[in-house]
Amino acid sequence: MGHQVIIFDFSLIRGLWETRVKKNKERQRKEKERLERSSLEKIKQEWNFILECRKKGIPQSKYLKNGFVDTDKRILDTYGKAPQLQKKRALPDEANKERNKFIFHLSGEQWMEFPDSLKEQIYLKEWHVYNTLIQTIPAYIALFKDLRVLELSKNQINHLPVEIGCLKNLRVLNVSFNHLKSVPPELGDCENLEKLDLSGNMEITELPFEV
Q1: How many domains does the chain have?
Q2: Is residue 1 assigned to a domain?
Q3: Structural domain that includes position 180
Q4: Which residues lie below 8 Å from residue 154, measured CB to CB, with a gap of 6+?
Q5: Which of 15, 180, 186, 198 has a beta carbon 3.0–4.6 Å from 165's, enabling a disulfide?
Q6: How confident is the model at residue 203 (pLDDT cuts 50, 70, 90)?
């Protein structure tokens, strides 16, 4: 019985092997690129998240855990709303504080006349004076060109000065429950007056034609 000789075509085997190697390398290359893209995207997301946290004033200890960035959106929601609420609460306080700079308040029976310092505050826009023993409105009221509200109820005021006609921006005048006997015609010069309250002044029987 003779020997059977098996002949291999090594060039064919080599070609198959090289093809497999190339395919494997191609798969590795694509996987590497995918991982790199994934890694870069993650880094980008983490960096944007860090920037957002810094912008909202979130401390680093809240979004870093064991050296890794925790991109949990609830962190932004929790810390993002608090400053806004604080800001919303702060704004009315600041607005009220600013508004109060232009408002004069005075009350109590210890007051029989307006304080001398009042004449230096001609920037005021409102006077609120009530329950005092003040009888006279000073003539320097004519200097208060920006005055819009003049609330003088429940005092002892016995007349309105003619200078009140200089208050071109006056919108509200309340002199109820005082001791007025008449109203000066000059009040008609307050061209922006929208509300006039003279109630409780029993001796006023009629208003001037100008009013």
Answers
A1: 2
A2: no
A3: 95-197
A4: 130, 131, 176, 177, 178
A5: 186
A6: confident
